[in-house]
Amino acid sequence: PLVMTAAEAPSSSCCNKKYASCCPEKTADDENDAAHYHASKRQHEGMLREKGLPLVQDAELRGAIVLVRVDHNVVRRCAVVDSFRIDATIGTLFSIVERGGRPVIMTHVGRPKDKSGHIHASPETDVEPVVAYLERKLHIKLHVPQLTCTEGVGIVDIDTSINRALRELKAHKVGGIYLPNTRWFAGEEAGGATAKRLACQLAGIADVYVNDAFGSWQSHVSTSEVVRYMPSYAGHLLQSELTGLAALLDAPKRPFVAVVAGSKLDTKIGTLVRIHNAVDHLILGGMVYNAYLCAKHGISMQGVTQEDVEAARALVALDEACPKVVELSHVVHSDRPGGERVEGCFRTVRAYEVSGDGW
Questions:
Q1: SS3 content of the chain, % helix, strand, coil (to 5)
Q2: Does residue 261 sit in helix, strand or coil?
Q3: C-beta neighbour count of 47 within 10 angstroms
Q4: pTM, two decimal places
Q5: How far is residue 169's CA from residue 176's CA, in Å, rounded to a whole number?
Q6: Were 101 and a residue from 66, 88, 124, 265 both cysteine, which residue would form a disulfide, CB within 3.0 to 4.6 Å?
Q7: Do 266 and 311 touch, CB atoms closer than 8 A?
């Protein structure tokens, strides 16, 4: 039958045997696990408060527009390639809405600014794939403002067209607003008056700021400058990342091994030096490792900038004094541009045989 009678319905205590299998009774272990989780969470929150970090759970959110910076930089070739980072922020977004807040979300996607400083907005760096994923996942409608974006310059202003979207957000006609890629904005990576202009405009569309983007550590307007102009708090994901990192750095289990990779070294060298001091072994990957090899062996590799090589020299010197970097036993040397493996044009050599001659 489509309608269940009172006699057929499961009781609130789940004692009806017909439905007992789908509602197993809580055990003492379950209650202990829950108690341990809440006790641990209170302890971690207390530790973060002692360090002076404002937490989102302490913010007054009822009726507030909440600007949420997340790290949803997971778009490649116009599609979401890994939803993990998106899913990890849903807890904070749910908490904000459950407590009466209305979210305005923002993230960066890719690197739309070229080396000349020109911003190129394109489908490859659009937030639309992330928006589509969240709409399917959460069964909501998100509004993406269509702001004027000039080729080479980017978005100069958040214009008054945002006001209608904010009214619809407050009226629950949309589940949230998702701003365009933060790096499409002219002020995001700028300084001076341009950066301040964007920060003030972002602060002007919301009441509260929440940072839940642990992976977006660069000091840009959407991560650091905007906090000067509005009440700001750490989201739940950011809190858990900081708690986990503190446990690793303050009292790690040994042997402590760190794996670090990425596309640029010059922006990571300070962090790498601290990690090197804390760990027993350090494994490098990607362009970070290529820059390390270039600095150590006096070679050059495609994609490794001179700035990265100079930055890597500090890590090389540090590791010579206290060896911790785990080096690959072999590397592949190609004579072809781009490192193609064309028969007869590449060879595998031992890493310690690498030198500047012929490379």
A1: 45, 15, 40
A2: strand
A3: 14
A4: 0.77
A5: 6
A6: 66
A7: yes
Phi and psi (nearest 5°) for 266? Answer: -60, -25
Contacts of 193 (CB under 8 A, 6+ apart): none
**Orientation angle between helical segments 286-297 and 306-321, nearest 10 degrees:** 70
pLDDT in tens, 202-251: 999 999 999 999 888 788 999 999 999 999 999 999 999 999 888 887 88
Q: Minimal CA–CA distance to 73: which of 218, 231, 286, 288? A: 218
The per-residue pLDDT of the chain, averaged, comes to 87
Q: At what angle do helices 84-98 and 128-138 cross, to 10 degrees?
A: 60
Within 10 angstroms of residue 12's Cβ, the number of other Cβ atoms is 8
* Strands annotated E in 121-191: 142-143, 176-178
Side chain identity at 197, as an amino acid letter? R
**Cα–Cα distance list, 288 to 43, 323, 325, 353 (Å):** 36, 17, 12, 20
